[in-house]
Amino acid sequence: MKVSKRDVYILLILVGVLVVVAAYFLVYQPNMESAEALEAENLQLQQRIADLSGKMENKDSYVEETAAMNEEMDAILKQFPVDVREEDGVLLAINQELIAPMVIDSVGITASEPTVLPDAEDEDVDHTYEIDEIEEYEAQEGIADEAEQAADAEAGGAAGEAPYVLMQRSVTMNYLVSYDGLKRGIKNISAQDNRMSIDNLTVSYDESTGLLNGTTVVDMYCIPGQDKEYVQPNFSSVLLGSDNIFGSLETYGIGQLDIGESAAEGEEAEGEEAEEAGN
155-161: which pairs have CB atoms within 8 A and are 24 or more residues apart? Predict the structure, then answer.
């Protein structure tokens, strides 16, 4: 079978077309797609490098701001005790009874538990510093972060420690008090060294005594994990014992709950009556 030159040319043309098509789909198109992907990735890397370079230029300001925030946090931590125990709630009730003065019928103290801040779960925290990316960039460029190394050395490498948690213990006091005594009791709570707040205050007028029946719930706060020790409350000024071990039923009037002056006036009146009787 003879093949003419025309047929040979046609076959060569078909083979050439097939080679071109195969080269396009098997070589050129995949290479173009790979080149486009590399170009897009390169653009993202350039933007990332530009962003990290800008952050590295502001590194000193970030370090200064971090140091200032650490100082502010330390100042806040110093305002809170490392622990709040049941005896702290008992001492608060005793001080209220003496300073107001008031007659406390009962005291309830809850267990210590984490404080739930309002709207804390809904707060959107915006992480503006991409720490991982900065560290990666520093590793690639061979930059040593001396501030971070110093911070790690100071913390003893304890990067896995849990953050500070604000704890609270609630103290509920049920009492009988005059209106002036109620105001003195509130002022005494606000003047305490340890951090605390009045969570709830309810009073009602008692017609039988002319005084106020009240309930106050005080939240006492602490932050465990600080580098300081718990300070035991001082009970040296608290009177212990009772002259009447079987108790007695007493009716309290407004005059009986007033501080100092009413008692002193009563003693002076008794002294004058005794002198008159002697004469």
Answer: none
The helix (H) or strand (E) run that includes residue 197 is strand 196-206
Half-sphere exposure of 266 (CA within 13 A, CB side): 8
Cα maximum dimension of the chain? 166
Q: In the numeric block, which tokens belong to residue 256? A: 């009986």
**pTM: predicted TM-score of the whole model, two decimal places:** 0.55
Q: Do residues 166 and 114 lie in contact, with contact meaning Cβ atoms separated by under 8 Å?
A: yes
* pLDDT tens digits, 12-26: 788 788 887 787 777
Cα distances (angstroms) measured from residue 56 to each of 8, 14, 68, 79, 96: 68, 60, 19, 35, 56
Burial classification of residue 148, based on how many CB atoms lie within 10 Å of its CB (0-12 exposed, 13-18 middle, 19 or more buried): middle
Per-residue model confidence as pLDDT tens digits over 143-178: 445 545 544 544 444 444 457 889 999 999 999 999
Paired with 173 in beta bridges are 107, 216
Tokens of 185: 């009791």
- Asked if 254 and 96 count as a contact pair (C-beta separation under 8 A), the reply is no
